[in-house]
Amino acid sequence: MIIIFGRFLSSIVLTIYSYSALSPALYISQPVIRQGEFITVSLTLPKSFKTLDGTFFGRKIKFFKTDTSNKYHALIGADVIAAPGIHPLEVNVNYVDGKSYSSIEMIFVQEGNFRKENLKFGRKSDIEEKVKKRVYNEWVMMQSILASGKERRLWKGEFIYPINGKITSGFGNQRIFDKELQTVHTGVDFRAPIRTPVKSPNNGRVAFAGKLYYCGNTLLIDHGAGLFSQYCHLHSSKAKNGDMVKTGEIVAFSGNSGRTTGPHLHWAIHVNGARVDPMYVKKYSAVVLPRGLAKEAIKQEEPVI
Is the pTM of this model over 0.70? Predict the structure, then answer.
C-alpha cells in the first residue's frame, strides 16, 4: 500500500492507494468546498474493471459516464450543516482479474457564510407527538427515495431556474423563532403568487409527488447520478410519479401549502444525499459539472436577489 501526503489550496490532501498496475488517475475539481457546495470527481478506467463505487460523509456516491469513453464522474456535496473540517472521500475499483484499487482523498469543508433571519408564525410552533412521528416517517421515506435514484445521468446541459421571481430567503439562512435557532434553510425561496407555473430545471423523472407536513404539496425530480431537485408548498403538481420531464416543462404550480408564512416557492437541490445551494448548482452547472454536460445552455432571465 502506498500513502502519499501533500498540500494543495490550503487543505491537507492524504491519498491512500492500494498498489496495482491498473491504478487510474483520480481527478478532483477542487479539494476545498463550503457547506452547501459540490464538486466533481473524475477518473478513467480500462474496460476490464468490474465495479466502481465510492463514499463521502458515509453516503454512497453514484458514478456516471458523459460519452462513449471510459471516463467516469461523480458529484459530491457538503451538506448545509456538514461539520467543517477534513473529511475522507473513498473510491474503490474492482477488476475482473481480481485486482483492486482504492483511494482516499481528504476534502476540506469550510463553514458557509449564512445569514440569520427572525420569523414569526401566527399559530403555535410546538407540534404534537403524533405529528412528530409523521414528520419522522416522511423523512425516512424521502431518504429512501433519494438513495434509490437512477444511476445514470438524466440531465443534459445547463440548469435553469424553475421560476422567475424575487428571492425572499436564501440558502443556509439560520431561522430563529422566538429568539431561538430552530431550523436552517435548506433551499431558496422565490416570491410567487399562488398558481404561478413552475418549470423543471432540467431533464429528469418524477420520484415523488405528494403531501408532506412541513413542505405541503411537494414534487421531487430525479435528474440521475444522485442529483435531485425539490419543490415545496405547491398549490398542485402537474407531473405525476414516474413521469419523465424535460428542461423548461411546466411540472407544478406554486402555492401556500404546508408550514409557511405566505405564498412562495421553495426550491431545493440534493447531491448524493447532501442538501446543497440551488443557486450554486445553477451558477456553476456549466463550470463545475464535467465538460460536455453543459453544451446546450438555455438563456433565461436571472431572478432578482
Answer: yes
